[in-house]
From TrEMBL:
Assigned GO CC terms: cytosol
Protein name according to UniProt: Transcriptional regulator
Assigned protein family: Belongs to the LysR transcriptional regulatory family.
Record PROSITE patterns: HTH_LYSR
Pfam families documented for this protein: HTH_1, LysR_substrate
Keywords, in A-Z order: DNA-binding, Transcription, Transcription regulation
Described function: NodD regulates the expression of the nodABCFE genes which encode other nodulation proteins. NodD is also a negative regulator of its own expression. Binds flavonoids as inducers.
Native organism: Bradyrhizobium manausense
Domain (HTH lysR-type) ranges: 3-60
UniProt GO MF annotations: DNA binding; DNA-binding transcription factor activity
InterPro entries per the UniProt record, alphabetical: HTH-type_LysR_regulators (IPR050950), LysR_HTH_N (IPR000847), LysR_subst-bd (IPR005119), WH-like_DNA-bd_sf (IPR036388), WH_DNA-bd_sf (IPR036390)
Record-linked CDD domains: PBP2_LTTR_like_4
């Protein structure tokens, strides 16, 4: 039977202090409790640890041999305990986070900066993936949680929390007139060169379905696979991008503005995704809370 941590503590203290009385005071227990702990080790291993006289304790050779190992075990246990406290208090740890490409570009820098200022010792493994790959990536366990735009497919294995929503918008160059529009209709864009996501992407499917219900049809001049491509083309005057307003990183594209589209209004969500059977680590919980606060103000 292996000795308990309490038994090892008693052994080391009695050895170092040379007194059961002093060891008992250190551990805040009675002298008889210390004597019992030492006796339990001796009986368990059938070895004498101390020679007792009326005035002193003298460690045996077996005791002196055992003390270094006992101290290493206690040191490792204390190190583990401190590491666990650091994890709970988010002074250390590691987060594996997956984000869709649009979120990585437009929203993540702000969230990441806030988190690092609060928890600089936490390591972050970041995976920027295509939107359609985000759900399977997280559900496969490659990331602790994910942030992006995706639809709840009703699976009981996923936990999805909406963090924010914004309407699809026309994103164009600031020219003194465009950015002053509070809203545009889809019909008002009919004569413009439109840049949209490629057919088959979720955002394009959502647009086509919404317009189809009102008898309208989207006729883009250019179709792309990446949001950053659409924005870069728009910034160079190639056309007007159709994207969620929150996907416009203003620091990267200061010459662009987003004007909400109506008739119909089509909204896109940014959500936090995790496995329903998976408990987030303390560090991940704090990251999620910072994301909630950051995105709720947008």
């Amino acid at each position: 039977m292996n000795p308990t941590m309490r038994q090892l503590e008693a052994l080391v203290l009695v050895y170092r202090l040379g007194s059961i009385t002093k060891a008992a005071a250190e551990l805040r227990v009675t002298q008889s409790a210390i004597s019992l702990l030492i006796r339990q080790i001796e009986e368990n291993f059938q070895v004498k640890l101390f020679d007792r006289t009326t005035r002193a304790l003298h460690p045996t050779a077996a005791c002196r041999e055992a003390i270094p190992a006992a101290e290493r075990i206690l040191s490792s246990a204390r190190g583990l305990a401190q590491h666990m406290r650091d994890l709970v208090e988010v002074r250390t740890g590691r987060i594996a986070l997956a984000v869709s490409a649009g979120v990585a570009s437009a929203l993540l820098p702000r969230i990441l900066a806030r988190f690092r200022s609060c928890y600089p010792e936490v390591r972050i493994d970041l995976f920027d993936v295509a939107p359609d790959e985000l759900l399977p990536f997280v559900m496969a366990g490659h990331a602790e949680f994910g942030i992006g735009s995706f639809e709840d497919d009703g699976t009981s294995e996923a936990r999805i929390e909406t963090l924010m929503e914004s309407p699809l918008s026309a994103i164009g160059i600031r020219n003194g007139r465009f950015e002053k529009r509070r809203r545009l209709t889809w019909d008002e864009l009919a004569g413009s060169d439109l840049i949209t996501m490629r057919r088959g992407t979720r955002i394009r499917t959502q647009i086509d379905e919404a317009l189809g219900q009102t008898g309208q049809e989207l006729k883009p001049a250019l179709e792309v696979s990446l949001i950053t491509t659409a924005l870069a083309l728009t910034a160079e005057g190639a056309g007007i991008s159709i994207l969620p307003a929150h996907m416009l990183p203003k620091a990267q594209f200061p010459t662009l503005a987003a004007v909400a589209l109506s008739q119909p209004i089509v909204k896109r969500h940014v959500s936090l995704l995790s496995r329903a059977d998976f408990t987030l680590s303390p560090a991940a919980e704090q990251f999620a809370e910072i994301a909630r606060r950051a995105l709720s103000t947008r």
